[in-house]
Amino acid sequence: MIPASARIWPPCNIYSSAEIGENVSIGAFTEIGPSVRIGNDARIGAHCFIPEGVTIGEGAWIGPRCTFTNDRFPPSPKDKWETTVISAGARLGASVTVLPGKTIGKDAMVGAGSVVTKSIPPGETWAGVPARKIKKRRK
């Protein structure tokens, strides 16, 4: 279900089983797979790929060209797919890739072009290939 308050820039491919929150913005050329959940006030940049098994929390910001994966060793059967959680207020710069089964904590930040191979604790800033901790953010 897509609420009337959502702003979706065409063309996008959003599966009917995806759950989109209020006041969500989704950029052009984005694919949102089955059963993806996106919380209220989240922003998704253009050209993103968000497959089944991804949850994006309230107020998260996903930069353009971000890619999420759900299959560690493709192609594998669906029962081998892993879930990914982007917590409330997390921010991902442009072109971030997040490997399956990772959690990016509340208010964490990931630098542009990074490849997330480990879960990121709340409030930390990570960047690089593979992404590494840069600093603990100030509150």
Detailed description of the structure:
With 139 residues, the protein is mostly beta strands. 0% of the residues lie in helices and 32% in strands. It starts with 6 loop residues before the first strand and ends with a strand. The relative contact order is 0.12.
SSE layout:
Blueprint: E1 7-8, E2 13-14, E3 19-20, E4 25-26, E5 31-32, E6 37-38, E7 43-44, E8 49-50, E9 54-56, E10 61-62, E11 67-68, E12 84-86, E13 91-92, E14 97-98, E15 103-104, E16 109-110, E17 115-116, E18 124-127, E19 132-136
Parallel strand pairs: 1-4, 2-5, 3-6, 4-7, 5-8, 6-9, 7-10, 9-12, 10-13, 11-14, 12-15, 13-16, 14-17, 16-18
Antiparallel strand pairs: 18-19
Output the number of helix runs. 0
Rounded mean pLDDT is 96
Major beta-sheet overview: 8 strands, mixed
| Model regions low in confidence, pLDDT < 50 over at least 5 residues | none
User: What is Rg?
Assistant: 14 Å
Residue share in β-strands: 25-35%
Specify the overall morphology. globular
CATH superfamily: Hexapeptide repeat proteins
Helix content: under 10%
In the CATH hierarchy, the architecture is 3 Solenoid
- Measured distance between first and last alpha carbons: 35 Å
Count of domains: 1
The neighbouring-strand order within the major sheet is: 1-4-7-10-13-16-18-19
Broad structural category: mainly beta
Number of strands: 19
CATH topology: the name is UDP N-Acetylglucosamine Acyltransferase, domain 1
Class in CATH? Answer: Mainly Beta
Order of helices and strands: EEEEEEEEEEEEEEEEEEE
